[in-house]
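B., you asked whether I could sanity-check this one before it goes into the benchmark set. Here's the sequence:
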Amino acid sequence: DVYKRQLFYYGSMFTLVPLCAWLGIAVGRCGWLMHEGGHISLTGHTKLDIKLQELIYGMGCAMSGGWWRSQHNKHHCTPQKLKHDVDLDTLPLIAFNKIIAGKGKKSAFMRFWLPLQGYLFGPLTCLIVALGWQLYLHPRFIIRTNRYFEGVCIATRYAIVAALSYAAGQTVAQAVGTYLLVHAFGSSYIFVNFALSHTHLDVLDADKHVHWAQYGSDYTVDITPHLFTDWWMGYLLSLIHI
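And here's what the prediction gave me:
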């Protein structure tokens, strides 16, 4: 019996990890798809795209489309501009450039953590950020702004996850572990690609102003289209990313 239980456990693990990776990619794909909805470029109909974005982001990622739109539009207005591009406001966990990193020198935690971000970003930091969004930042935004539809989408997602975990015979600890593993893959997939928009570009001083076309040419990233990278990155950087 002990041998059979061990065989079942290790067999399940060999099955579970690829399955969690596949589900993580699916979570990331929901992120790319909702991105198009948030930019009103999914169907081209504003109200429909916004509702689709909120549905996809809520059900697929347990996050708020309204919060995303409020932040992401600020990013596109002034990409890579200090104190204006909210995507650069990443401390204490991440610093995409040396100017942001310099702000962490007064903190003992950041002096310890930031030199390790090259090793921790994919496997750990991305998951911490995703959980912070799912469990605190986005629910708080939904409650404060009375976004009931988004709340229902997220609650439905958690109910489905709980039902599937129960049907699979998982304990609470196993279900939580599986959830964390799925979102470790999913958050790493989307945030590592997202980081390409920030890690190697120059930053603009907070009091400096440039033309909107210069924001698009100098402070955003475009890549050469390719069948795989187009799919992998949800067409995010293979079009004119302005």
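One thing to flag: Residues 2-38 form the longest helix (37 residues). Otherwise nothing jumped out at me.
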